[in-house]
Amino acid sequence: MTPEAFFELFLHELVQNDEMHRYYKFLQGDKSFHFRRNYFLTRLNYVYDHIDSPNLEIWDCGCGYGTTCLFLAMNGIKTYGTTLEFYFDTIEKRKHFWNQYGDSSLFSYAYEDLFSTGSTTGKYDVIIVQDTLHHLEPIEKALSIFYDSLNTGGKILAIEENGQNLIQSLKLYKQRGSKRIITIYDEKLGKEILLGNENIRGIEKWRALFEKNNFKIDDTSIEFIRYYLPFMYNKANPERLKEKEFDIQKKSNFRKKYFFFGINFIANKSDGNNTTV
To answer: Theoretical Cys-Cys bridge with 119: which of 27, 149, 154, 218, CB 3.0 to 4.6 Å?
Structure first.
């Protein structure tokens, strides 16, 4: 099932599941629909392009509503998802909907704290972290758990906000100041946990962190996404804007670095000398 086909079915699901409307705002009938659709599909296509085998062992750490896991299940790919989100209880209802179109049992999930559970040595081929890395603290301990959990030749597939985006950085600073790490109380777990407070980073900071923890980012995998703001979609062709965004990131390093909202990348597990296995 292509991302585009999945998206059309996903819209039907949203009509039936108003619990998801606060997060997924596609049914508001406003002019931002194509803006949101492009962003959703660009990220899902990145997963589609880099995960293409039903034989892979996949862990989606921070799976949220489980949308990516359900998409993979519709393509015959098994995924284990973990989350600490309050909407955890919505997932089973979603699996019932998607079972009409594929085998949703391929998606299993748990309410699980990464740092309490620890690693399952060498179990996974791919670890997906979508909108999750900037919440994991302490980050180096998280990367160590990921390293141990991946088998030889395993990789992390990261989908993140761009910490060097000037507009988003200013917005977040106004919201939280410089307090990038906070402590919250998780009622389900019954304990306090550390949380990255929208602690987004740019690609070079991620590169330094990953290399320090025996991963190597594949430069050919780096993709910057979402350059145009919502109002720019009012009179423009959405597909043309997507093409133009792709061209801009190839031609303008300055705009790519400071004005694209998101970054996607693959980090491969390395040996102790930072040499890709």
So the answer is: 149
